[in-house]
Structure formats: C-alpha cells, structure tokens
Design goal:
The chain is mainly beta. It contains two helices and ten strands. Strand 4 and strand 5 form a beta hairpin. The longest helix has 10 residues.
C-alpha cells in the first residue's frame, strides 16, 4: 500500500492523511499572500447576525480595498464620518483541494468608506465588479489583527510559494 492509504483487514483501503504541519505566518507574510489573490470573503454583521460575502479585493499599503454596490448588503457597512469604521473580518486563502496544502489568512479591522472621490474612482478602475450594478464606492479595511497559517507537507522547506499557490 502507498503512503496515502492503508489496507484494512476486510480488504478495503482506508485513506490516511499525508504528514503535514501547520506553520503560523507573520503579519508581513500574511498580507503579502493576500495580495497575491483577488478573491476573499468579508464577514460582517447584518441584522445582528454574522454574514459572509465573497468579494474581490486588492491590497494597497497594507489595507484591503473592496467595492460595494448601491443596494447591496455591504452598503450597510458605511459608518458615519465621526467613527473609525465598522468592525469586519476578511479571509483569503489558497488551499489545494487534493493535497490540502496551502495557506489561509484572516484580517480583522475597521472598514470605512473611501472618502476621496479620485481614490474611489481609481479603485473602481482596478476592481472589476462581478455583476452589472451601480457601485456605491469602495471600502478600506485597516487591519488591526492579522493571523494566518500555511499547511505544508512534512519535511518540505518553508520557502514562500509563488503567486499565492501552495
């Protein structure tokens, strides 16, 4: 039997998990990895309950930028100008479905509307919307807490993967 399975007494093969280890990422590496992909999930509160939406993003100067639709659920995240923003979490990852190797990063921080019109227009050019709906602008997530890990095959070196791939 190979390393991916063991034969049981009844002749059936039981799949085993290849030896892996989980390595914690530091803040800089975690944000660098998030910048290598364009898709993530934002976690926010909607009607006093947790909600999750997939969104595309970009990372600029350590902040995560996403667009919001005029009437979408994320438009409710726009905070009044006198508060630092609304607390959200943002998660991005690349994990191979077959090997289960890759990385995952969660960013927690305040989301606030990008107030500068020129800056918001620039983000509108850089972020391609998924649907043909008017955009209300862009949200900037300023990371306060950044956590992440890399799932690696046991015995491999921990050199960073190119373009976010495991």
């Amino acid at each position: 039997m190979d390393q991916d399975g063991t034969q049981r007494a009844d002749g059936r093969v039981r799949e085993t998990t290849p030896a892996r280890r989980m390595r914690e990422l530091d803040r800089a590496e975690a944000l660098r990895l998030v910048a290598t992909v364009s898709l993530g999930r934002i976690v926010f509160t909607q009607h006093a309950l947790p909600a999750v939406r997939p969104v595309n993003h970009l990372v600029e100067d350590g902040d995560i930028i996403i667009q919001i639709h005029d009437d979408g659920a994320l438009a409710s995240l726009v905070a009044p100008a006198d508060v630092p923003g609304v607390v959200v979490a943002y998660e991005a990852d690349v994990i191979d479905p077959d090997t289960h190797l890759g990385w995952s990063v969660v960013v927690t921080g305040y989301a606030s509307l990008v107030a500068d019109a020129d800056e918001a227009d620039r983000y509108a050019e850089l972020l391609r919307p998924w649907v043909a709906q008017p955009m209300a602008g862009a949200l900037r997530i300023r990371p306060d807490l950044v956590t992440g890990f890399r799932l690696e095959a046991e015995g491999t070196c921990s050199a960073p993967a190119a373009r976010g791939r495991p």
